[in-house]
C-alpha cells in the first residue's frame, strides 16, 4: 500500500524538451542560415504597375482584363525568388524551380555586367544566384563563412599592388632624373673644350692664310720695275 506522502514523478508537459532532443543543435543550425531575397522596395514598383494597368483595364475591360494578372505575377516572383545560404550549401529558389548546391560543387563567384551574381561550379558550369545582386554579394560572402573567396579583399589587394608598383616606378624615375642632373656639369664642359680646340684651329688657319695675302707684294714690285724702265 502506497503512502500518501510518496513522491510522484511529474507528468510530461508539451513545453518540456525531451531528453536527447536536438533543440540546441537545430537552433545553432538555424543561426547559420541566411536568406537573401529581392529588396522589399520592389513592392512599390508593383503598386505603380497595378495603377498603370488599372487605367488600361478600365478603358477596355473586356479585352484587357488579363493585364491585372501582371502585378500578381510580379508579387509571386518577388516572394518566391531567393538564395538561402546554410552549412549544407546554397538553395536557389525561383518562381517555377529550385536547386540545391553543395559547397563542394561551388568553386567561386563572379560579378557580371548585368544580372545576378554567378556561381562557378566544379563541372565548369555557371549558375546565377537568385536575388543576389552586387549590393548583396558581401552578405553572401559573409554568410558562407569563408567557403567563398572574398572578391572584395582580392580587389583591394590588387589595387594595393598596383599602387605600390606605380609608386616604385615613380621612385625609379625620380632617381634616374637625379642621376642625369648630377651628370649634367661634366657633359656641359665637353662642348667648351671643343670650342677651345676650334678656336685654336681657326687661329692656326688665320696664321697660314696671312702669307697668301702678301702675294700682292711681288705685283707691287713688278709695277715699280716697270716705272724704272720707263724712266730710263
Percentage of residues in helical conformation: 55-70%
Annotation field: number of helices: 7
For the sheet with most strands, the description reads: 4 strands, antiparallel
* Sequence stretches where pLDDT stays below 50 over 5 or more residues: 13-29, 196-232
Instruction: Estimate the global geometry from the Cα principal axes.
Output: elongated
Query: What is the end-to-end distance?
Result: 196 Å
Order of helices and strands: HEHHHEEEEEEHHH
Structural class: alpha+beta
Architecture overview:
The structure is a single chain. This protein has 232 residues and is α+β, with helices and mostly antiparallel strands. Among the domains are: 84 residues, no CATH class; 32 residues. Helix content is 57%, strand content 13%. Strand 3 and strand 4 form a beta hairpin. Helix 2 runs antiparallel to helix 4.
Q: Would you kindly provide a brief summary of this structure?
A:
With 232 residues, this protein is an alpha+beta fold.
Structural descriptors:
232 residues; alpha+beta; 4-stranded antiparallel sheet; 3-stranded antiparallel sheet; 7 helices; 7 strands
Q: How are the SSEs placed, and which strands pair?
A:
Elements: H1 23-31, E1 34-37, H2 42-59, H3 61-64, H4 69-80, E2 82-86, E3 89-93, E4 98-102, E5 106-110, E6 118-121, E7 126-128, H5 134-143, H6 151-213, H7 216-231
Antiparallel strand pairs: 1-2, 2-3, 3-4, 5-6, 6-7
Helix pairs in contact: 2-4
